[in-house]
Design a protein that fits this description.
580 residues; alpha+beta; Beta-Lactamase; 15 helices; elongated
């Protein structure tokens, strides 16, 4: 036997390599453990930095994007998203990281909460998947969506309510998400809930300050005697600034007709809806006015509850309508809307505008009482003037006339003088008649003003709906009830009546738009239809001649032209009398 194999002092030969290899292995294991500890420390430091980053912001939109960016960095993936859950259980906001704007536009609308995303909404627990497509709830991707395989999701909770979910996909290097990634994402979700709650509180405080400032400004303007039209314009502008909406309109009732008219509008294409008449029962604004309750619409232009209104004229998406006043007495309806592809309005924005609307309605009521008090003073002053004219002026004129008539009996021998005195007596009689007419006008003016031009226009247009087979669109703008003289008003209504009758009998139209406006000292009527146009073979047009004569008698013009692309356009324009 070889004695060297059992000699412990013999360090020659292959057996001496075994301890060295074992030491190298131990060192490698130790190095790996050190790297793991170092990596965990780095990851923990990154997680703490992420928590500090998302917690340092107070703007909610900025905080939400920071959360997604931090999550993508922590779990080392390519794509990340945060889906905010709405009141109806779907995704109302979707913040993404890793997808460029061009790809987002190609994909189209953000997810609504189906498939795997919907599973996390229904069961808010963390979820790891090696392959999205193999899960039974997977519904695939829309056209243009980048391919995604690995998946990690975790809920974001604010107090006892699930705010949304974090979705991470495509772990770097083709690897799968592990338990550490899941733990980190859950931890970030918990920290995100605190940051979101702080941002919400700050946002609510800012909204409250802005609402109070806007309400104070509106109240100041109303009580300072500003023009009501300017105040309504300011109201819509303030609401748009508070809500960040694309369009805000304010509709007010037209007399006792049940119709509304958009008196003020601010935002995109506001000129296209300003002055638009909203028939009773056919628009969401009319429903809000009748019920006194707020209505929220996911897409106003496609809402089956409305067949007219701003959504029928413009392409509008998310919107809500708020009554201005109390359910017992609604003074108007506010419409706040975004474009079709615009974001939905959060509950906080609706609550803020509702609070502003309540304060604005109170201010309008105070202003209305002030105007009523001023009107009472005016009416009392009219009564006093009428009494003074009757008791003083007429009595004295009548007494003077009697005195002159008694003088006539003594002037039989002076016919020339008697004739002159008789003319004076006749003038006094005419003056008495004029004064009496003035007294009657003073006492009857309030009754005549109760049936304003706007209400009569609404009535005429509503009457035309039966022979036409559809309701014409009506748009009114300007101080039609106060600045249009009676003779102009009567002529305008007669021309409108004749124009709508002609459309019903001859045009075979499917739509008619009536516009009445008071601009630059002129009263203008436009009636546009999409019918077959004026038949050149018809030579007898007494109705058109009458409309032209009515315009010329008031110093105006009448134009009948082909519509674009089809139909007929009628324009009847008359200047207002000077000195009014």
């Amino acid at each position: 036997m070889d004695q060297r194999s059992s000699d412990p002092n013999d360090d020659s030969g292959p057996p001496s390599l075994t301890p060295q290899l074992r030491l190298d292995t131990l060192l490698e294991d130790l190095y790996e453990q050190i790297e793991l500890v170092r990596g965990s420390q780095n990851r923990m430091r990154t997680l703490l930095d992420a928590v500090l980053t998302i917690g340092s912001g107070l703007d909610l939109d900025v905080v939400l994007r920071r959360i997604v960016e931090s999550a993508v960095q922590l779990v080392d993936c390519r794509y990340g998203a945060l889906g905010v859950i709405g009141d109806e259980g779907g995704i109302e906001q979707f913040i993404t990281v890793g997808i460029d704007e061009e790809t987002i536009a190609r994909i189209g609308h953000y997810p609504r909460g189906e498939g795997i995303l919907g599973l996390l909404i229904r069961d808010p627990r963390s979820l790891r998947l090696p392959d999205l497509s193999e899960h039974p709830d997977s519904v695939g991707f829309p056209p243009g969506h980048p391919p995604m395989t690995t998946f990690l999701g975790a809920p974001v909770q604010v107090h006892d309510r699930i705010f949304g979910n974090l979705y991470m996909t495509e772990k770097s290097g083709g690897r799968q998400f592990d338990a550490d990634d899941e733990a980190v994402l859950r931890t970030l979700g918990a920290a995100a809930g605190v940051a979101i709650d702080n941002a919400r509180l700050y946002d609510a405080a800012r909204r409250g300050e802005r609402r109070l400032a806007a309400s104070g400004e509106l109240t100041r303007r109303l009580l300072s005697g500003a023009d009501p039209v300017d105040v309504l314009d300011s109201c819509t502008m303030m609401v748009r600034e508070l809500s960040g909406a694309d369009l805000v309109t304010l509709a007010v009732p037209v007399g006792a007709t049940g119709n509304l008219v958009i008196e003020a509008a601010d935002g995109i294409d506001a000129h296209r809806v300003r002055g638009l008449s909203l028939p009773a029962g056919t628009s969401l604004a009319a429903k809000v006015f009748d019920s006194g309750e707020t209505i929220v619409s996911a897409c106003l232009s496609q809402d089956p509850r409305a067949v007219s209104g701003s959504g029928a004229v413009l392409d509008l998406g998310p919107a809500f309508l708020i009554p201005l006043g109390t359910p017992e007495r609604v003074r108007g309806v506010l419409l706040v809307a975004n474009r079709r592809d615009g974001p939905a309005f959060p509950d906080a924005a609706i609550e803020m505008i509702t609070g502003f609307a309540d304060q604005a309605a109170l201010a309008l009521e105070i202003a209305e009482h002030r105007r009523d008090a001023e009107q009472v003073l005016i009416l009392n002053d009219r009564d006093r003037i009428a009494r003074d004219l009757h008791d003083l002026a007429i009595q004295r004129l009548f007494a003077g006339g009697l005195s002159l008539q008694s003088v006539l009996n003594r002037l039989t021998d002076q016919p020339e003088t008697a004739e002159r005195v008789q003319r004076v007596v006749d003038d006094l009689d005419d003056t008495i008649k004029i004064v009496r007419s003035t007294i009657y006008a003073l006492r009857e003016r309030e009754r005549s003003e109760s049936a304003g031009l706007r209400a009569r226009l609404v009535t005429e247009v509503a009457r035309a709906a039966e022979p036409l087979g559809f309701a014409p669109a009506l748009r009114m703008s300007g101080l039609l009830d106060t600045d249009v003289p009676d003779d102009h008003r009567d002529e305008l209504l007669a021309v409108l009546r004749e124009a709508l009758s002609n459309v019903a009998r001859h045009a075979h139209a499917g739509a008619v738009e009536v516009t009445v406006e008071l601009v630059d000292g002129a009263l203008r009527l436009r009636v546009a239809d999409n019918g077959r146009g004026v038949d050149p073979g018809v030579t007898r047009r007494s109705g058109l001649a009458n409309m032209r004569t009515r315009a010329e008698n008031l110093g105006g013009t009448f134009v009948l032209a082909p519509g674009r692309p089809t139909g007929t356009l009628l324009e009847w324009t008359v200047p207002l009398k000077t000195g009014r």
